[in-house]
Write a structure and sequence with these properties.
Radius of gyration: 22 Å
CATH superfamily of the largest domain: Cupredoxins -  blue copper proteins
Bound molecules: copper (II) ion
Helix content: 10-25%
Strand content: 25-35%
Largest sheet: 7 strands, mixed
Distance between the termini: 55 Å
Length: 426
């Protein structure tokens, strides 16, 4: 930062880089302070994930890798070389949590997943999320930093808040361990906050929720309206402005004020891909031996009659979305990770602005034949969980139904066993 340069225009990207490199600290304090802080950060980054000794079960280690890759949609299949270029966070297997960065680059660079993994976090634990910036295969010229910003989280210290202008960003090829102490249960979202208009639209976002201490409830102390549930499903709502993705892939400038989405997605897929189970997405075989996909999260809702179904819905698109399940009334019990208590409301349409979340419960109706379809679990009645705006039920220029749409499948009594995890389909 001390080298002499010819003056040039300083972009927003440059300012963010300064935040990530510690130069911001130099501006704020003396050089000795800066050296101390900067060196400490380097030591922290070199260690796997620094943590104090803790009781077993009271802490959790997660590692997320930031990189790029391609996503597949109807009309834009990766197998046809037409995937949509994206950025994102992907998880690593538990035995790779402490792996060296060069190994991770070899194995995962360019193998993005979208959305970022669902993080289901117990309340009151010590949570460590190590984020590693692997860089981009398609854009080696972009040395962007990344951050993790946990949207709506009450963070006592901005160091771990991930807003690069007032905090730390993770430069290319580096690690940073984020620390969180989740005390307020509910549904949140997390995303990269570096060049955030671009990086969020490019795919660096996911759902994180804090589990209540009361098993099977979305919130503790929920006497005003029960939040008990039998099954839960998370939904990350987004739109895709594919023109911007194509511009980034091809090193073209992009005018974000021209934002005009042409795909509308839940959990990184548009209908009919949304109803496929975890490993059925077509054209997804370029990834790691075919057992992990770039868009691994199914949006299919499967339930027995009478089950209480919890929908954790978050919106990190740039449009407001209005969601409906025609034929099934919904009860909104939580909003932006807060229990609504006696302010809960019944609704046929759920409105979510950008950055908003809702916890929604419904009781699955009875199964009444004849079936609307049959899948591996058996015959079912079908309901639609969809955006009420028909112009968002399309895929680009493809004909037919698509977009922000999935199915609720209700089977005869006793068909499904207990759910083993959020969004788990059978
Ligand atoms: Cu980023």
């Amino acid at each position: 930062m001390t080298e002499k340069r010819t003056p040039r225009r300083v972009s927003r990207r440059d300012i963010l880089k300064l935040g990530g490199s510690g130069a911001l600290l130099a501006l704020m304090g003396g050089s000795g302070l800066n050296r101390l802080l900067h060196n400490d950060l380097r030591v922290a980054a070199a260690a796997p994930v620094p943590r104090p000794a803790l009781q077993p079960g009271s802490s959790m280690d997660i590692r997320l890798l930031a990189t790029d890759g391609w996503m597949g949609f109807p009309g834009r299949r990766r197998a046809a070389g037409e995937g949509i270029y994206s950025f994102g966070f992907r998880p690593v297997a538990a035995n790779e949590t402490y792996a060296k960065i060069d190994k991770l680059i070899q194995k995962y660079k360019g193998k993005v997943t979208w959305p970022a993994p669902i993080l289901a976090i117990p309340k009151d634990i010590d949570l460590y999320i190590a984020m590693t910036n692997l860089g981009f295969v398609q854009r080696p010229d972009l040395d962007d930093s990344h951050t993790i910003h946990w949207h709506g989280f009450r963070n006592p210290n901005s160091v771990f808040d991930g807003v690069p202008e007032v905090s730390i960003a993770v430069p290319l090829g580096r690690n940073f361990p984020y620390y969180f102490k989740p005390r307020d249960e509910g549904t949140y979202m997390y995303h990269c906050h570096f060049e955030d208009v671009e990086h969020v639209q490019m795919g660096m976002d996911g759902v994180v929720y804090i589990e209540a201490n009361t098993p099977g409830h979305a919130y503790d102390n929920d006497s005003a309206i029960s939040t008990a549930f039998d099954r839960q499903f998370t939904f990350m709502l987004n739109e895709i402005y594919s023109h911007a993705h194509d511009n980034l892939e091809n090193v073209q400038e992009n005018l974000w004020s021209d934002y005009k989405a042409d795909y509308w997605v839940m959990n990184g897929r548009s209908y009919p891909d949304t109803v496929l189970r975890d490993q059925e997405l077509p054209g997804s075989d370029f990834d790691l031996g075919g057992d992990l996909y770039s868009q691994p999260i199914s949006s299919l809702i499967q339930t027995n009659p009478g089950d209480r179904v919890l929908l954790r819905i978050a919106n990190l698109g740039y449009e407001q979305h209005a969601m409906q399940i025609p034929g099934i009334p919904m009860t909104v019990v939580g909003q932006d990770a807060s229990y609504l208590g006696s302010n809960y409301y019944e609704a046929t349409t759920i409105y979510l602005g950008p950055g908003e979340a809702r916890d929604v419960l419904f009781t699955a109706p009875n199964y009444s034949g004849p079936p609307d379809g049959t899948d591996g679990a058996g015959p079912y009645n079908r309901y639609w969980f969809r955006n009420r705006n028909a112009q968002r039920l399309i895929n680009g220029t493809e004909s037919g139904l698509g977009g922000m749409l999935t199915e609720v499948r209700v089977y005869p009594v006793g068909t499904l066993g207990a759910q083993t995890g959020p969004n788990k389909t059978f």
